[in-house]
Design goal:
Elements (H helix, E strand, L loop, with lengths): L36 H9 L3 H7 L4 H4 L17 E2 L5 E2 L1 E2 L10 E11 L6 E10 L2 E3 L16 H6 L9 E5 L9 E5 L3 E5 L10 E3 L4 E8 L5 E8 L4 E11 L1 H4 L19 E11 L8 E6 L24 H8 L11 E7 L4 E6 L1 H12 L2 H6 L23 E7 L3 E6 L8 E6 L3 E6 L15 E7 L4 E6 L6 E6 L4 E7 L4 E7 L7 E6 L9 E6 L4 E6 L3 E2 L7 E2 L10 E7 L2 E10 L2
Helix pairs in contact: 6-7
Length: about 575
């Protein structure tokens, strides 16, 4: 039974829990035994190929040892063409001299490397120019492929030059996010961008007693939340990192030009990272996943003339400009509330955390009075400088609202848009995806424990290792079943959910992660899959392609344009890929 006490915005601390170990290796059911701390820590520290394989849980072979061989379909792969300059493409053409509305999506691929290779590469996911569309993942034609160019700075941040193995990477998913943050087994947190938006590539290092396990970034790149195991205090915690953006330092036209811009809603061009403090997770020593969101997914920033604008137009030193973002045309540009969900596979728990104090404090400091704005002028990495560490200003420290039981949780995601329809989704190893209401966590109203309820569940393939956003949709998510080599689309309503599309392909040997691609100038739906044991990433298109700003040509999927999917291409790696984090290139 839960024992709770409430205070503030409905703070709930859960005590007196009996922790249950769900086993490790490929055990599918909880054992009910008391956790063996040292064994778990040993497994979490193991970032070898075998260790990372274990981390993702049972694969297809584990569930199908005695089953008849399954015949997988083969999704049609679009043939490759070549433009006049020798660059490959698949759709459109012929190549035109005028580049037109150039667009590409680029980002980082995480993998467990073979000996001699660095574990992060930068890849072009899609590209459109000169009338030609490339829907195969490729090495960037302009260079900067292997290793990730930011790796030079990352190595310099480590005393021995060893960054370790990446654990996960995140970007702000509610808006254009030029930079993402990768977290490594060494405790390093490091930023990376694209060919035209690298930022200052800042880094941060956790102390040796903080073992990182997962990372998430709020909608518009305001804060990063990293789950850690404290090996000295035996606590599970969430580290809250403030993110500074640097439009002025990098002369990036789309970003804030304020040199003291910390944790503002932005386009994610990072200049620095600061640890604000840690939030303890009651009853959870070994957190294994996190998703942090705000309650705003607005993709429009209004300029001074009422048309779409860019952040550099505004100077927060002026009261009139501050008013624009607090009560004027851009009052809804940033979030007013938010929450995080942390899952612990070993303890069979999920914790819901209120982020509204963080988000509201930033709004008040930057967007209200001259007095508040002046307090942000002394900014830096010292605890008493803005943004203030929790030990200096405890009032804006997030709080745990509720901890619930969830059997063997493997993945978590939450709605990017707030309001009454906001939901959290937690996948369990048996293939059930629970759908939860979150109530006041997603609005400016007080958070209430009784509003955090599992209202429905959807059955998909076994061992879902990833839940991903269906970009440009507010009622769909995507789930990856490692155990059944399947990708499923889940559509949800207020109280129910259903699988509406499934993808299987003989090329997908061991899918563990997916991400839907950003688009600009075109309209389509395309996802990239990390195939761990297949040692490759693959692109699949599952929506009509429209050259939206250049002629309006339309292309379906398959040889006759009538298929549900087509494979755009694959890119092999010297190792086992398990993560993708990409964004539109400005």
């Amino acid at each position: 039974m839960e024992h709770v006490r409430t205070g503030g915005r409905g703070l709930v601390l859960v005590a007196g829990m009996v922790l249950a170990l769900a086993g490790w290796g490929y055990a599918a059911e909880p054992s009910g035994a008391t956790p063996d701390r040292e064994a778990i820590l040993s497994q979490l520290r193991d970032v070898s190929l075998q260790g990372m394989d274990w981390r993702f849980g049972p694969d297809y072979a584990a569930y199908h040892k005695d089953a008849p061989a399954e015949k997988f379909p083969e999704v049609w792969m679009v043939p490759q063409k070549q433009d006049a300059g020798g660059r490959p493409y698949q759709i459109g053409g012929p190549w035109t001299k005028a580049a037109g509305d150039f667009s590409s999506t680029q980002g980082q691929i995480l993998y467990v490397p073979d000996a001699g290779f660095f574990p992060v590469d930068r890849v072009t996911i899609i590209e459109w120019s000169n009338g030609c569309f490339t829907e195969a993942p490729l090495a960037p034609w302009h260079g900067g492929f292997r290793p990730e160019p930011a790796s030079t700075k990352w190595k310099e941040a480590m005393p021995d030059g060893e960054v370790g193995t990446p654990i996960a990477m995140a970007r702000g998913m509610g808006y254009w996010a030029n930079n993402g943050l990768a977290v490594f087994s060494s405790g390093l947190v490091a930023a990376a961008g694209t060919v035209t938006a690298r930022g200052l590539e800042p880094t941060f290092r956790f102390p040796p007693n903080k073992l990182p396990t997962a990372i998430s970034i709020t909608n518009k790149s305001e804060f990063a939340l990293v789950t850690v195991c404290d090996t000295e205090t035996h606590k599970g915690q969430v580290a809250v990192l403030a993110l500074q953006v640097g439009g002025k330092q990098t002369r990036f036209v789309h970003e804030w030009q304020d040199e003291h811009a910390w944790s503002l809603p932005s386009v994610g061009l990072f200049a620095n990272i600061k640890l604000l403090g840690y939030v303890d997770l009651p009853g959870m020593e070994f957190p294994t996943g996190v998703c942090a969101v705000g309650n705003d997914a607005n993709n429009r920033m209004n300029g001074r003339d009422g048309n779409a604008g860019i952040l550099r137009e505004y100077d927060l030193a002026k009261q009139a400009d501050r008013d624009v973002f607090f009560k004027g045309p851009n009052a809804n540009y940033g979030s007013t509330a938010g929450f995080a969900v942390v899952v612990g596979k070993y303890e069979n728990k999920a914790a819901f955390i209120d982020l509204q104090p963080l988000i509201q404090t930033v709004r008040e400091m930057y967007f209200t009075t001259e007095e508040n704005y002046q307090k942000t002028r002394d900014s830096g990495l010292e605890p008493k400088q803005w943004p203030h560490a929790f030990e200096v200003n405890p009032s804006w420290k997030p709080s745990v609202v509720k901890v619930i039981d969830v059997p063997r949780p493997t993945a978590v995601i939450a709605s990017l848009a707030g309001g009454a329809k906001a939901r959290a989704f937690i996948a369990s190893e048996d293939g059930k995806v629970g759908i939860y209401t979150v109530g006041g966590l997603a609005t400016k109203a007080p958070a209430a424990t009784e509003e955090i309820v599992r209202v429905s569940e959807v059955q998909m393939g076994r061992n879902p290792t990833c839940l991903a956003y269906q970009k440009y949709s507010r009622d769909q998510i995507i789930a990856v079943s490692r155990g059944d080599r399947e990708i499923a689309w889940i559509r949800y309503g207020e109280k129910d959910g259903e699988v509406i599309r499934r993808l299987k392909d003989s090329r997908l040997i061991d899918p563990v992660f997916v991400e839907v691609s950003d688009t600009h100038g075109i309209s389509t739906s395309l996802l990239t899959v990390a195939d761990f044991k297949g040692r490759k990433i693959l692109n699949y298109r599952y929506g009509q392609l429209v050259f939206a700003t250049q002629g309006g040509a339309k292309f379906g999927m398959g040889p006759d344009g009538k298929d549900d999917f087509e494979c755009g291409g694959a890119l092999e790696f010297p190792g086992a890929p398990f993560g993708v984090s990409a964004t539109n290139v400005n």
